[in-house]
Design brief:
The protein has 189 residues and is an alpha+beta fold. Helices cover 25% and strands 31% of the residues. It has helices spanning 5-19, 24-31, 35-42, 50-60, 64-68; strands at 85-88, 94-97, 107-114, 119-123, 131-138, 140-145, 148-153, 157-161, 166-169, 176-183. Strands 1-2-3-10-5-8 form a six-stranded antiparallel sheet. Strands 4-9-6-7 form a four-stranded antiparallel sheet. Strand 6 (140-145) and strand 7 form a beta hairpin.
């Protein structure tokens, strides 16, 4: 993670929460993240895990990229590796956001690297109409959607409605690299 992440996240999380007129308690209820953890993140006292960050983004109806980055209104955006936001979880898996944050667009293109035998955990359902596409570059990946596991190998791909609880795990003996393209639908007004 980069050094300015706590400050940037603190500002953007609070701004997204206020934009939606949510109290700390309301965001905690919607995300399943404790009020004290959200407060600590907004004060810059704690950096959340990848799962906590994903739960907060889902509850706010935005992508993780929107919480971490600035909008890029250009027609063409080159994302050199050094500019890509990478978040490494304590279990050793890394989520690298390849897509820029575009005004009014809740889309993420993500590269995830998972060590052998690691389970990423459960991601909350996104808004109805959200979509996710997964493609495995190397290794093995089990994607569980609504309690049903789907085992994928290198070259396999999977689509699922993003408004379902989903989780990822690498059941294999080698590292897994996979890509996710995710469109988060806006909540109905």
């Amino acid at each position: 993670m980069d050094d300015d992440l706590p400050e940037r996240l603190r500002i953007r999380l609070r701004a997204q929460r206020h934009r939606r007129e949510l109290s700390l308690e309301a965001l905690a209820a919607a995300s399943g993240v404790s009020r004290s953890m959200i407060s600590d993140i907004e004060r810059g006292a704690k950096i959340p895990t990848v799962i906590v960050l994903a739960r907060l983004a889902t509850a706010l109806g935005v992508t993780v990229a929107r919480l971490l980055g600035e909008d890029r209104p250009e027609r063409v955006v080159v994302r050199h590796r050094a500019e890509q936001r990478a978040i490494t979880d304590a279990d050793g898996w890394q989520r690298r956001i390849l897509s820029p944050t575009l005004p009014g667009v809740e889309f993420e293109f993500i590269r995830t690297t998972v060590p052998a035998g690691v389970t990423l955990g459960s991601f909350a359902a996104h808004a109805p109409g959200s979509r996710e596409y997964v493609a495995v570059e190397s290794g093995e990946l089990t994607v569980t959607v609504d309690g049903v596991g789907h085992r994928l190998s290198a070259g396999d791909a999977l689509y699922y409605a993003g408004d379902a609880v989903h989780e990822f795990a690498n059941p294999g003996a080698t590292e897994c690299v996979y890509y996710t393209a995710m469109h988060v639908a806006k909540e109905p007004a």
